Amino acid sequence: MVQTVEIFYSFQCPYSYLAIDRLSQLDRKFDVRVLWQPYSAKAAGQNFHHTSTSPEKISYIREDVVRLAKLAEMPLVMAADWPEKEFDPDKSTRGAIIASDLDIILEYNIKMFDRWWGEGEEPNDQAFFIQLCNDLDLDPNEFAGRMSTADARERVRGIYKRARKLQVFDTPMIVIGEERFFGIDRIPHAEGRLEELGVKKPNWV
Q1: Domain extents for the chain?
Q2: What are phi and psi of 97, to 5 degrees?
Q3: Closest Cα to residue 194, out of 5, 45, 1?
């Protein structure tokens, strides 16, 4: 039986952006079935206000993210008024659902994160969307049509409900069975757990 690993991530979260490369290695290093779960309370229609997060914590996150991006040699563009004003994740999250159906979810995630956080582009601009589809060799009109269905919206809400059931409270979070591993610094712990489960690929050094 193949071990299932769920990765809950958010395009709104700079830590998810910084973790994407390491997370993308999991199914290369281990014999696992990775489920990419785009998690967003806002995209799921839930009311969430950043005012519930203390100014001190927001200040620390901004400082920490810049530091981590520099260490990882990753480009980072963070708006001065983040997170009070941030890009709307609804369209991007629904797009991830369709990308998963098309078996291009990893490519979609990487390109979306790179342009959202690496280049600071507005993901809801028409030009952004068309270029993204071109990069993924997709027809923009067909992709937009599939994203706009009631089914896509309901599946975004379904992932949010599942996340709440699993007690996912932030991203990035890896769920293996009933065990949760939250944050970039816990990815090695998740990898260690997979080694304990005996699913590491023998040819991976």
Answers
A1: 3-196
A2: -60, -45
A3: 5
Q: Which residues pair with 9 in a beta bridge?
A: 38
DSSP 117: I
**181 within 8 A of 189, measured Cβ to Cβ:** yes
Residue 74 CA to residue 40 CA, distance in Å, equals 24
| pLDDT per residue as tens digits for the range 10-50 | 999 999 999 999 999 999 999 999 999 999 999 998 865 55
Which DSSP symbol is given to 35?
Answer: E
CATH 3.40.50.720 assigned to 3-196: no
What is the rounded distance in angstroms from the CA atom of residue 6 to the CA atom of residue 8? 6
**173 backbone dihedrals φ, ψ, rounded to 5°:** -135, 130
The Cα–Cα gap between 84 and 80 comes to 9
CA distance 65 to 157: 28
pLDDT tens-digit readout, 64-83: 999 999 999 999 998 888 88
